[in-house]
């Protein structure tokens, strides 16, 4: 299995700084990434080393698997999870230790963050992603029309970031666009490209004449892009809500 791009970059940075060969730098980096965690009988909050923000918490791990993150991190250390990669690590927990599928993934993410090979909002392939959501007052048909009807879209996008508005409009107006795909359960989805990144818009019906608008913006190359895109989408969804909620 290939390791995360973030780990490779750390190794290359050390090799460039010290003049070591890649293999020597790799050995030192991996040695530093494997501190043993002390077993905590009664957790009083996780240390920074076992931070699980955005993944499985220590309390949830104990509830669902019978063990806290300290136990599973030690299991993954023995397995050599840093070197073997995310997929192999999650499969090891699932196949070898009967950890339920979703929790095997979440525990592995928490482990990778604690060992410094994955940052918050970073995927196992080294790229970053961000998600933003907003509940608006609209029917599903009305929410879809706010995106697909040129006049309505232009009206609320006037209050959004210029680059975001330009790319979204171009994607929807493109002859190759398939528009929103509405599923049997009433949810709608639209995907398009923004330069080298991918955008997925989901419209989820809620009770009381509401719709949850969710964007998943993936394949961001740098961590700095996460907050930039988050801010752009929050402003855009705020403008959308202001129009629909009138």
- Under the CATH scheme, the architecture of the largest domain is 2-Layer Sandwich
User: Could you name the ranges where pLDDT drops below 50 across 5 or more consecutive residues?
Assistant: 35-54
What percentage of amino acids are in beta strands? 15-25%
**Going by CATH, what is the homologous superfamily of the largest domain?**
START domain
- Shape verdict: globular
- CATH-defined topology of the largest domain: Alpha-D-Glucose-1,6-Bisphosphate, Chain A, domain 4
Instruction: State the distance separating the first and last CA atoms.
Output: 53 Å
Biggest beta sheet attributes: 5 strands, antiparallel
Number of domains as seen in the coordinates: 2
Order of helices and strands: HHHHHHHEHHHEEEEH
Mean pLDDT: 80
Helical element count?
A: 11
How are the strands of the largest sheet arranged? Answer: 1-5-4-3-2
Helix content: 40-55%
User: Taking Cα atoms only, what radius of gyration do you get, to the nearest Å?
Assistant: 22 Å
Instruction: Please write the CATH class name of the largest domain.
Output: Alpha Beta
Count of DSSP strands: 5
Structural class comes to alpha+beta
